[in-house]
Specification:
Layout (H helix, E strand, L loop, with lengths): L1 E9 L3 H12 L5 E4 L15 E3 L8 E2 H14 L3 E3 L3 E7 L2 E6 L2 E12 L3 E3 L15 E3 H10 L7 E5 L3 H12 L3 E6 L12 H13 L2 E2 L2 E7 L6 E6 L5 E5 L2 E4 L3 E3 L2 H5 L24 E3 L10 H19 L8 E3 L1 E2 L3 E5 L2 E3 L9 E6 L3 E10 L2 E11 L5 E4 L13 E5 L2
Parallel strand pairs: 1-2, 1-8, 2-5, 8-19, 10-17, 11-12, 11-17, 12-13, 21-28
Antiparallel strand pairs: 3-4, 6-7, 7-8, 9-18, 14-15, 15-16, 20-23, 22-24, 24-27, 25-26, 25-28
Helix pairs in contact: 1-2, 1-7, 3-4
Bound molecules: flavin-adenine dinucleotide.
């Protein structure tokens, strides 16, 4: 089976669907979105708690309500959504191979948007020793067990991680009637930030009710058939403790679902681990764009949706004949900066560049000065009173116009 469309979007999460909606609004005729899941909506479909839609719909939705809203909007505008359709590789530069219950085939398109999201690093990939007992989850697998398959998961859980997504695990566990014995982080403070007031009150309540153990690391999972506890090491005095529990949830530590991108030979940005993009969401391959969590790990759904919309504008310009930049410079970051977005600058003028560069750092840093160098030349510096880990911060993009396209890659670093 071979199908040709104007724009093919891989991933029917907020990024893919918001992009498809925007493309239809811009007048693009054929927009096809494929997803391997049986329903469109992406990750929010399985997050049965509230916390979605405030920024993009000005309403507070549960994940499934939010997913439905995007899917209904897309369908009402004529977007062709194909579920149970998994992209398996590339047929050529602008055609992808797929498999579905109807068989295999090729989907060709004038432009392709990759919006395949992220997954959490599972226990095995975190190199944590112990047997493989029942009761070990990621937030994603926990939510599938609890909310999709309605299976029991245990009575007393430990959450590994104390960031935004760990709260999602907390809500799922307490909603299923489990006690949360502790949230664990190797950092000196939790990293659960909530921008709007009602959520702040709620967050304070969670923090009050749950022991948050800071500066600790899980070093073993106990139990052979069923989890019996976790052994943790205190990083400050090297002491070892056991927390009895029958479920462990590993949260965060994101890995972009970059397999399709890698199979296509797209350049992958180190640190972010998603396809390298410029300020217009263009990857290293002409006609191929990328947006959403695939680019760098989990943000809010609204951020991914907004990126999808920006990418749509860029895709539309490409369909109308805008030339693909012939050259681009990578933007490099130095530790403790983990990644920046965009992570390259195209040599087709400053007009397409973003006003801000998003970035994350690996640890809490106070009174920091971020500097941008190109070779030995200081292009820009900006002070930050506080840089927290697991939260995206924004550096002004004022320096982008000063980059010499024939010079070395600009580098963002912390002074001192
Ligand atoms: C547990 C959890 C709780 C969260 N809670 C909140 C919250 O309360 N509020 C909030 O704003 N955000 C929340 N988020 C973040 C939000 O869900 C994400 O930011 C958002 O879903 C990202 O959208 P996306 O489109 O980039 O990726 P996703 O939503 O992950 O969608 C990617 C889609 O791509 C599909 N796909 C991947 N590979 C292929 C392939 N080869 N072929 C076909 N399809 C493929 C997947 O099936 C998936 O449907 C939460 C995230 C998690 C994990």
């Amino acid at each position: 089976m071979s199908v040709k469309t104007d724009v093919l979007i891989v991933g029917a999460g907020p990024a893919g669907l918001a992009s498809a909606i925007q493309l239809k609004k811009l007048g693009v005729q054929q927009v096809t979105v494929v997803d391997r899941e049986p329903e469109p909506g992406g990750t929010p479909r399985l997050c049965h708690h509230t916390g979605f839609g405030v920024w993009d719909f000005h309403r507070l939705y549960s994940g499934p309500q939010y997913a439905r809203r995007y899917a209904e909007l897309a369908r009402s505008l004529g977007v062709d959504i194909r579920t149970e359709t998994t992209i398996t590789g590339w047929d050529d530069e602008n055609a992808l191979t797929f498999t579905s219950p109807q068989g295999t085939g090729v989907l060709a398109a004038s432009a392709i948007l990759l919006a395949t999201g992220v997954r959490e690093r599972p226990r095995a990939a975190r190199l944590i020793p112990g047997y493989r007992p029942r009761g070990v989850f990621t937030t994603g697998s926990l939510q599938r067990f609890v909310d999709e398959q309605h299976l029991p998961v245990g009575k007393r859980a430990v959450i590994v991680g104390a960031e935004g997504v760990s709260l999602s695990a907390f809500m799922t566990l307490t909603g299923a009637g489990l006690e949360v014995a502790a949230m664990l982080t190797d950092l000196p403070r939790h990293q659960m930030y909530f921008p709007y007031a009602p959520a702040k009150w709620w967050l304070m309540d969670v923090v009050h009710r749950t022991p948050i153990r800071t500066r600790v690391r899980v070093q073993r999972i106990l139990g052979r058939k069923r989890v019996e506890g976790v052994e943790i090491r205190r990083l400050d005095d090297d002491g070892v403790e056991v927390i009895p529990c029958d479920a462990v949830v590993f949260t965060g530590d994101w890995i972009p679902e970059n397999e399709v991108a890698r199979k296509g030979g797209l350049e992958i940005a180190p640190g972010a681990l998603g396809p390298r993009i410029d300020g217009q969401f263009r990857t290293s391959q002409p006609g191929v764009f990328a947006a959403g969590n695939l680019l760098r790990g989990a943000e809010t759904a609204a951020t991914s949706a907004m990126e999808g919309r920006f990418a749509a504008a860029s895709i539309n310009q490409y369909l109308q004949g805008k030339a693909w930049p012939r050259r681009r410079l990578p933007i490099q970051v130095a530790p403790p900066i983990l990644w920046s977005l965009p992570n390259s600058i195209s040599a087709d003028g400053a007009s397409g560049q973003r006003k801000h560069i998003a970035f994350r750092v690996a640890r809490f840093i106070n009174n920091a000065t971020m500097q941008v160098f190109q070779g030995a030349k200081l292009l820009y510096e900006q002070r930050f009173s506080h840089l927290p880990p697991n939260e995206t911060m924004y550096l002004s993009g004022a320096w982008l116009t000063q980059v010499d396209p024939d010079g070395p890659p600009p580098q963002i670093r912390l002074s001192g």
